[in-house]
Structures are given as structure tokens and as C-alpha cells.
Amino acid sequence: MKHSLRALALAGVLILAGCQSYGPVPETVASVDINQYAGLWYEIASNPQFFNENLVGVTAEYTVREDGTVKVVNRGFEGSLNGPQTSIEGSARVVDASTNSKLAVSFPSVPFSGLFPGEYWIVLLDEEYQYAVVTDSRQSSLFVLYRSGSIERADYDAILAALEAKNIDLSRLRVTGTIVE
Questions:
Q1: pLDDT > 90? residue 62
Q2: What is the C-alpha separation between 149 and 90, in angstroms, rounded?
Q3: 175, part of any domain
Q4: CA-CA distance, 52 to 180, in Å (whole number)?
């Protein structure tokens, strides 16, 4: 059993080491009030990932627990807003207490998620906590989140411009929410 865990850990490290990077290590925001960040967010756009393929109407709901961890509930619809709803529950913990802008997320129902939690780096955050953009150290994932289900085109374009200024790769970003022209 001990050797199996070591082999599993080594395999995970090798897999992560081979992951493609899509840009420089991004700079996170200077400070996040986790309690203000908590609540319901709507995904406006994201990079395709194995776990969000073919999902629309995606939301993420964050609830701060008494122990300081964050309950994470992601929901979405398969194919269309009329499609079947899917959801997953997990937990996040702050890994950079000086800023609260870097978290590690794990989902118990995902194999090895506890051993290799996902990076959740907040790289853009509105002062009023109305929008946020999250990625990871390799810019593999990217999520544009908004507090309501639709965003004005000018606001979305301003977010994209701010991300470009931060050298965030937008080449794989796909719109998954509603942009109002």
C-alpha cells in the first residue's frame, strides 16, 4: 500500500509536469475578502476542460464554512438550458493567506482530487465583487465569472482587455453565458 501511494504520487507529479503551459505564471490580485467573494457566480466564458465539456448555464456557489474552508457547488446544463442538470460539490482552502487570491480546490467524487487539488487563482476582481476571473499557474483553465446571468458587451470587452494587459492567454476562451449587445 505504501509503495502504491508513492507510485501514485509520482505519477501525478509526472502528469502535472507534462501539462502544457499557455502563458507566463499569472499575477493574482492583491487582496480578496473571502466572505465578500462567497455567493453565487455565473460563468460567462471559460476555457474548455474535460469537466465542463458541453455545459452551459454554469454557476458556481461558494459558502465560507466555520473552519475557513469554502464549500464549492458547481452546476450546469448539458447541451442546452433545457438539458439535464449536472452538479458537483467540493471544497476549497486558501493557500496564500497574505492575499486570499490563491486557493486549492478538490472534489471528493473526482479520483485523486484530494491528492492533486486544482489551482484556483483569482487574477482579476472587480472592487464591488461583481466580476472575477480565475485561472491557474499554467493558464490551462480560465473562467470569467459574473454576479448575474448576463453581462453587457462593453463590460465583457473591458474584462478581456484587462486580461490581455496581464498576459492572460485568451485564445481558447469560449463564451458560455449571455453577453448583451
A1: yes
A2: 22
A3: yes
A4: 23
Question: Into how many domains does the chain fold?
Answer: 1
Q: Which helix (H) or strand (E) holds 158?
A: helix 153-165
* Single-letter residue type at 118: G
Residue 86 lies in a domain: yes
Q: Is the pLDDT of residue 74 over 70?
A: yes
| Higher-scoring residue by pLDDT: 14, 110 | 110
Cα–Cα dist 17/100, whole Å: 25
Q: Is residue 135 part of a domain?
A: yes
- Residue keyed to cell 470587452: 157
Grid cell 463590460 — which residue?
Answer: 155
Instruction: Compute the distance between CA of residue 72 and CA of residue 94 in angstroms, rounded to an integer.
Output: 13
Q: Which domain holds residue 133?
A: 27-180
Instruction: For residue 5, tell me if it sits in a domain.
Output: no
Q: What is the DSSP letter of 130?
A: S
Residue 128's domain is classified under what CATH number? Answer: 2.40.128.20
> Mind listing the pLDDT tens digit for each residue in 109-131?
766 656 678 899 999 999 999 99
Q: In percent, how much of the chain has pLDDT > 90? A: 70
Positive/negative CA dihedral, 48, 53, 59, 65: negative
How would residue 17 be classed by pLDDT, with cut points 50, 70 and 90? very low
